[in-house]
Specification:
Elements: H1 7-15, H2 30-40, E1 52-57, H3 60-67, H4 72-80, E2 83-90, H5 97-100, H6 107-110, H7 115-139, E3 143-147, H8 152-159, E4 164-173, H9 189-192
Antiparallel strand pairs: 1-2, 2-4, 3-4
Helix pairs in contact: 1-7, 2-7, 3-4
Length: 196
């Protein structure tokens, strides 16, 4: 059985997708980011919740503040990427649920009245949305360099607030010279899938 998506799109979105480590200096525009969001916002989540928040780091001053919190091996690429996005989970996402999930507006209070329940759901669903975002960056013909090598608490204090939990930092742009490490192996289907 073949996939419905054409082979070139399969390659673009998945088979050729890798974490970019260098970028050209070609800017990433607000229009490109808007187009990415307008595509990936339709990805499914539980209760149609939308906890992902995207903080675009554009100014030199903000970039400098972010680089200080990156792990040593991630500093140079974060300093030179055309655009950097901090992806975080909004732990107060439930306030939007009556509008986003009109089929069951009571979900806000029935399932998410307590902060620990919100944090767990926000982390899971924002991570799902972050994956959609990375695929959307690829769909825009750009490269993504997602990273979790940074001081999470430092980034939260510097750029967010107590209601937001950082998930990852993503460098975005056109791939530069030697942008890719060699392709790493993947597990085989039989190592991953079990039928019961």
């Amino acid at each position: 059985m073949s996939l419905v998506l054409d082979p070139a799109s399969q390659d673009l979105l998945f088979r050729e997708a890798r974490t970019a480590n260098t970028f050209t200096d070609e800017p990433v525009t607000d229009e490109q980011v808007q187009a990415i969001y307008d595509l990936v916002k339709y990805g499914p989540t539980a209760f149609n919740q939308t906890p992902l928040r995207i903080t675009l780091v554009r100014s030199a001053e903000a970039r400098e503040r972010l680089v200080r919190h990156m792990a040593e091996g991630n500093r140079a690429k974060t300093a030179t990427a055309p655009l950097v996005a901090i992806l975080s989970a909004d732990n107060e996402f439930h306030e939007e649920l009556p509008a986003l999930f009109p089929a069951f507006p009571q979900a806000k209070d029935v399932f998410f009245a307590e902060r620990p329940a919100r944090e767990g759901s926000a982390a899971l669903n924002a991570a799902l949305q972050a994956a959609y975002f990375i695929v959307g960056v690829r769909a825009a013909g750009l490269a993504a360099g997602p990273m979790t090598g940074f001081d999470f608490e430092g980034v939260r204090k510097e750029f967010l607030d107590d209601d937001h939990t950082p998930l990852m930092v993503v460098n975005i742009g056109r791939p530069g010279p030697d942008a890719w490490y060699p392709r790493s192996p993947r597990l085989a289907y039989d190592d991953v899938v079990t039928t019961v």
